[in-house]
Structures are given as structure tokens and as C-alpha cells.
User: Fold this.
Amino acid sequence: MTAAAHPHEAIFRDLLVQHRDRLYRFVLRHIGHAADAEDLAQQAFVEAARQYENFRGESQLSTWLYGIAMNLVRNHLSRSPSRQYRFEDESALDDVAVVAADPEEQCEMGELVTMLQAELQDLMPEMREVLLLVAMEDMSYEDAAALLNVPIGTVRSRVSRARSHLRRRMEAAGAVLPF
Assistant:
């Protein structure tokens, strides 16, 4: 078939190129399993292509795509409550770049990351979710609001409160923050 037979082909090609890696990381962060994340990210693109005629244009196309991915993640997690973890041997690190750092700095950063992970887990789920979307996924406040179906002011408030809470807790624990 020709490109004229598929008028939306260029739109999806651009969407795929722009969001493939970011969408994969988004899904991976939620489910923690690389192969499943790859499958779900690909399925999100397939669903978007299949359902494009239902896209009403009330949000950006990318926001709509992330909404589809989030629904797939939720379905996946609800079907697999006892997720299994696979452990890799050290050969999995063969292709990982090594950054030479002072052992003391490595230790301090490791402690800081561990502390931050614990504090993130203690955040209210709504605050944690929006903070991860905005800070880790580099999603705009507008896109996060559309994805979560909440007002933009709610997103701004949750991000601000989450950052403030984390900063306060980390400093109270004696952490020296690099930011």
C-alpha cells in the first residue's frame, strides 16, 4: 500500500522516533522487568495506531500515548501481583560504562541514593507518581496533568510538596544534597 493509503503513517513514525526510548523507560520504571516493558511499550504504540480514529485531540498525541501505556501497565500489574525478579550474573555489567569516582564519593552517593529511594517510597503515592513523571520522565506539568486526569495546579502543588518533603527529610537525616 502507498503512503496515501495510510495518511497517519508519518505521524506514527514521528511519534515512535520521538518517544520510543522515553516510553520504554516510563513503562520499565513502573514494572521493573525489561522484556515486559519492551512488550508493553510496543503494545502501546500498536494500540495508539489501532485507536487513532478515537483520538479527539483534547491533549497532545504523546500524552494520549502515555495514557495508553499507563493503562497497559496497570492491567499488567493487576494480572501479575506476584511479580518475579530475575537475577543476572556479573556479565550483565560488561557493557555498562564505568565512571571513575573516588571510593568515598561512591559510598556517599550510594548512601544518598538508598536514602532517597526510601524517602520516595514513603511519599504519598499521588505525590510520588507526579514527581517521577515530571522529574524522572521529564514530562511537562501539562502532560502530567492530562495523563493523570488532574488539574495542572494539582500537579504543580504535588511536585512542590514532594520536593519540599524530600529535601526536608534528607537534610534532617544529615544528607548533603548535591543540588
The chain has a mean pLDDT of 81. DSSP finds seven helices and no strands in the chain. Residues 3-79 form a domain with the Rna Polymerase Sigma Factor; Chain: A fold (CATH 1.10.1740.10). Residues 121 and 140 are 22 Å apart (CA to CA).
